[in-house]
Amino acid sequence: MLLLRFSITYRISFVLKEHDLTLSHNPSEHEGSGVIGTDHADTIHGGNGVVDIRGWAGDDLLFGSVRGGLISGGRGNDTIYTFGFGAPLPQQFQTHAYGDWGNDTFYLGMARYNYDTYANRFGHHVFGGHGADRFIFSGVAQGDQKITGRIDDFDPTQDSIWIGNVRVNLNDLPDNVRIVQHLGQQWILIDNRILYALEGARHASPTIQSDGRNSESSEENHFIYWPEEWADGVPASADVVYRNPVNFIPARFLPVEAQYEHRFSPRDHSFSGTARNDRIEGSPDHGQSLFGLGGHDFIFGNRGDDTIQGGEGNDYIDGYHGHDRIFGGSGNDSIDGGKGHDIIVGGLGHDVIAGGSDNDTLHGSSGDDTIFGGSENDLIFGDSGNDALYGGSGNDRLNGGVGADILDGGDGHDRLWGGVGNDRMLGKSGNDWLHGGDGHDHLYGGWGNDTVFGHHGHDLIFGGPGNDRLFGNSGNDHLYGDAGDDHLDGGYGNDILVGGVGRDTIAGGAGTDRLHGGASADRFVFFTQNDSRPGQGRDVIVDFTPGEDKIDVSRLDADLSRAGNQALIFNPNGPAEHAVWLIREGRGISVRADLDGDGVQDFAVWLAGVQRIVASDFIL
Fold first, then answer.
1. How would you classify the pairing of strands 194-197 and 185-190?
2. Which cellular compartments is it found in (predicted)?
């Protein structure tokens, strides 16, 4: 009995926003400096250094690092921890946190520990997104450095600010909190050293630069230093009564901030952005055509059946509700179809695409894309590039296209095509159909009664639990049935076949093959003399058990000179015409057969470690 134990982990890297991101096959809880989660509730720990963490969907728990980057919750009610600025660094950094959809909680770490590299520090750049969000300043009592930051879309009608476990009433401030006016904006000042803007970015002209001076351009600069005139303290004359401002909300945290925001009335049916970085939000009343054009754009489709084109730049597009048609264009885009039957094409660049709920059709197009189908029955095409495709729940169809791809069917009865390239394919649960295509592929059926084809190349195929059908086709393949009553067919090439636990049917096919039945009563099937020729070309059955396993030679034609399929006879006394006989050879037995009537072997297979077999061990 041969026992196999194996595990498969898929891990890829691709470039997005000029940082390396790592996508783990099952990132329900893991660490990394750049990670994308799943549509489940993930726990992700960012490592030290610049991080990019995207929870995607689900109620996620995300932990950021001390050195900037982006932490994005995605859909769901997420909890985002951004740790303090505790390490001495050669230059200043800031951390971007984006909640996206849902009621999110942000822990804005202020801890400084014992370091004093800079007297002033950049803090957080936070965008809560849709939903009632909580912004919690933690570790306020630790350290004495001055820290500046911003909350871009604070809405006092639904959002809240906390210091530790105490909620701040902006109309009845605690002793250590003030609302101050600076450069035409309202700021919250905590302990006379933590200064956060509550109105986000200013309108396009004039622009506030990072040194506090006005810019002659209409482009908002990224961050603001602690005001020089407040170096010795913030005067009482700066105090104001808090009022609910009209925010200018910039785009998602991409390499350059948004410069324009566009919202539309129900009368608008089409709108084009600018060559700069736009934030475009459609009408909730009907479908629209929205075009980002140039720049790094942030586009919301809202509730209608929308047509959205990102254009040039690294865009973030959310179709939200409705049956949308979304085209990313050039650039490394992030696209979420939301609810509805969506058609999404990533276009040029390394894109991240999520279909959301309902039946979607998703194309990565060129580039190394990551695509999530979500719920229901999706069609997913990687097209060219080294893509990662995830079907999610539902009966999905995944096609990797050209490139070294990762395909994960998820739940449901899925159909996966690897295409051209060395692919990694996982059917997961359900009765799945997998086809590796050209290239040296790794295919795992997962749970269920799966059908798996290696096709061209030297393939590694695992059936997983269930009654599976595995076909190596051409190439030197390795086939492992695992648990269940499996059918294994090596096809052409020198293959290794392992049935595993269960009553398996094993056919090596043409070539010199090694056959392992595993536990239970197995059947070894030979169709033609090419399946196991005498000499160096013969097959080896490694674990044949007399009285339990069977050698099926009923498909062999005992007389090639006659029409039809003539049955062989068993001759225990040695070579004979149109017969099967046995020769003791080394530490096993050689099974031989004559197929042309000359009494000389035309077919042979060696049974390793077997000392005696009888006629009842054959199917003639």
1. antiparallel
2. Secreted
